[in-house]
Design goal:
Helix content is about 5%, strand content about 45%. It is mostly beta strands. The protein has a domain of about 140 residues. The strands form 7 sheets. It has a 4-stranded antiparallel beta sheet. The longest helix has 7 residues. It is globular, with a radius of gyration of 20 Å. The relative contact order is 0.15.
Length: about 375
């Protein structure tokens, strides 16, 4: 058994965070110096200590569903959150509970459903929901302009439906991937300027694209998970060759992985993460009852590494892997934030029963629509 499997085999719950009010936990981001930021379905952003999970702050200001949170890379005191209210806000985590220090906007009709920050922290990008039955936009700002006034412009031709994910390359500040419910995953080189010249590749997921993840030793592979549980892995190093981009593709990944003799099943996929130290692509999926499955993805498909039981009591919406702490953080629709570590022993009471409330939570979480791929694919 190799090092990664040994670590995952030993994972157990060491901490749980239970908010006072029930709320879906939608996205989570890690600050290198010890904070976790969590976006919630009640339009707030919570700050937690990454080791104790104690809540140390909360930010209010958004008036619509949140589409993500991300810490700055070089200025880790800044936290960015995007929302369907048409704003991306920057918060100073040294002042929990304070007003946002910057507010980024574009056209008043824009409603954001994804965001990310370049590895240099200079460029901020948000993807919009579809407008006028055909238009959606990638919006760009220069974060160095004071007061959120650094609007640079938009790309408007590459997607025709909600842009559900934007992901900057971890090392190349000008490389960006975007996924949409129009079924397309696009890759751009922003240093080329205009949209038509910047578009390097268009990969077709044949479905509604959800999570997108850069992977590979040189981060030249791209993982896409669709809203109907499809999985696609593309090799972008083949762009200038005649070799196919597709490393692996499955329209429905739920039947790919044997889950042992315990009667487990895979109901949905959460996302993926490239583990730099292990040089492996980890994909997280789960069961509607809250159990999780950690799987490796490569050219052969999915392989189960470890199942995590007895933690959550409802669908898991987000996770992150803390490489420095060798820990997994998960959050979901049961309002719980869990910290898993090798060889740990939970110090709190048994798991909380589901806190889901159809009347208060489903209306506020607004998950992306999971329709089939219906629109004509763009050429």
């Amino acid at each position: 058994m190799d090092g990664l499997e040994e670590k995952l085999k030993g994972l157990s719950i060491v901490r749980r965070s239970r908010p006072e009010e029930p709320t879906y936990l939608l996205d989570v981001s890690l600050q290198g110096t010890g904070l976790l930021a969590v976006s919630c379905s009640n339009f707030t952003v919570h700050l937690h200590n990454k080791d104790t999970l104690n809540q140390v702050g909360e930010y209010r200001g958004h008036t619509g569903p949140l589409c993500g949170v991300t810490f700055a890379h070089t200025s880790s005191d800044l936290l960015y959150s995007g929302s369907a209210d048409g704003t991306v806000r920057a918060w100073d985590v040294r002042c929990p509970g304070s007003e946002s220090v910057q507010v980024f906007k574009s056209d008043a009709s824009h409603s954001y459903c994804s965001l990310d920050l370049s590895c240099s922290d200079a460029l901020l990008c948000a993807g919009t929901e579809q407008l006028n039955d055909e238009d959606s936009f990638l919006v760009f700002w220069d974060t160095r302009k004071p007061g959120g006034g650094g609007l640079l412009g938009v790309y408007s031709e590459s997607h025709s439906d909600d842009i559900t994910q934007v992901r900057f390359h971890p090392r190349d500040k000008d490389r960006l991937a975007s996924g949409s419910t129009d079924g397309l995953v696009n890759v751009f080189d922003l240093s080329r300027g205009a949209e038509e010249e910047a578009l390097l590749a268009t990969c077709n997921s044949d479905s509604s694209a959800g999570a997108v993840c850069w992977s590979g030793a040189a981060y030249d592979r791209l993982l896409c998970l669709s809203h109907d549980e499809g999985l696609h892995l593309w090799d972008l190093s083949q762009l200038d060759t005649d070799e196919p981009l597709t490393v692996f593709s499955a329209a429905d990944a739920r039947s790919l992985t044997p889950l042992g003799d315990g009667g487990g099943r895979l109901d949905y996929l959460v996302g993926g993460v490239w583990l730099e130290e292990a040089q492996r692509l980890l994909v997280v999926g789960g069961e509607n009852g809250g159990d999780l499955h950690l799987m490796e993805c490569d050219g052969r498909g999915l392989r189960l590494l470890r199942s995590l039981e007895g933690g959550h009591s409802a669908t898991v919406r987000c996770f992150l892997w803390d490489a420095a702490g060798e820990a997994l953080v998960t959050g979901g629709e049961d309002a719980q934030l869990l910290l898993w570590k090798p060889g740990g022993e939970e110090l709190t009471a048994r798991k909380r029963e589901s806190m889901k409330s159809d009347s208060t939570l489903r209306q506020k979480s607004r998950p992306h629509k999971k329709h089939g791929y219906q629109r004509e694919k763009k050429k």
